[in-house]
Amino acid sequence: MEKEELLQKSESVRKDIGLLRANLNNIREEKEKLYQKRNSLREKINEKIKQVKNLKNRKDKDNIGFQEEIKEKEILLKDIRSLIVKVKHLRDKRKLLRESKKFEKNPRLIKETLEKLELKIETEAVPYEEEKKLMKKVNQLKKEFKSMKEILDVSDEYNKISKEIDNKKAKL
After folding, report:
1. Which pTM was predicted?
2. Residue 111 in contact with residue 145, Cβ under 8 Å?
3. Quick one: which of 6, 169, 157 has its CA closest to 91?
């Protein structure tokens, strides 16, 4: 009996071992699946981390560019303010000159007339008497123009700075 019992026990132990082995294999397969799932999740996490780092780097570069644009804007505004002060000063100076000298004619009109007369003297055959009169008129216009030249210079400078302000505002 003992032999039979031992054989039965041995047979039952073998069955238990077989069951335990099958159970162990199932657990190993499940462990392998979980391990692969863990690795897959790690790869996804690493990919997301790379994306976040790339976005952060791009944001940092954009912020640097934005800061540079702000500095450039501040410089342009400072330039514009200083030019506006100059324009105001020139406008006041021009106003004072106009009030103090009380010009009857437009300086630009005098300049055009002067140029036309000089051109006429140079290009046309004019009798001597008429040429004398024209030369007198030219000399008189030159004197008037000289006295007005200061206002023209101030006006030209005023216009030049005004255009510069407009250009900087456009750039801004």
Report:
1. 0.50
2. yes
3. 157
- CA 149 to each of CA 47, 77, 144: distance values in angstroms, whole numbers, following the listed order: 74, 32, 9
Count of beta carbons in the 10 Å neighbourhood of residue 131: 14
Mean pLDDT to the nearest integer, 137-164: 80
Per this entry, what is the length of the chain? 172
Q: What mean pLDDT value characterizes the chain?
A: 85
Question: Does the structure show a pLDDT above 70 at 103?
Answer: no
158: tokens are 């005023």
C-alpha–C-alpha distance, residues 166 and 172, integer Å: 10
Q: What is the pLDDT of residue 14?
A: 93
CB 142 within 8 A of CB 114: yes
CB count, 10 Å around CB of 58? 10
| Distance in angstroms (rounded) separating the CA atoms of residues 3 and 29 | 38
Q: How far is CA 169 from CA 69, 72, 86, 164, 165, in A?
A: 15, 12, 16, 9, 6
Q: What's the first-to-final CA gap in the chain, in angstroms?
A: 108
Q: Where are the alpha helices (DSSP H) in the chain?
A: 2-101, 107-123, 128-171
Does the structure show a pLDDT above 90 at 144? Answer: no
What pLDDT is stored for residue 116 in this prediction? 83
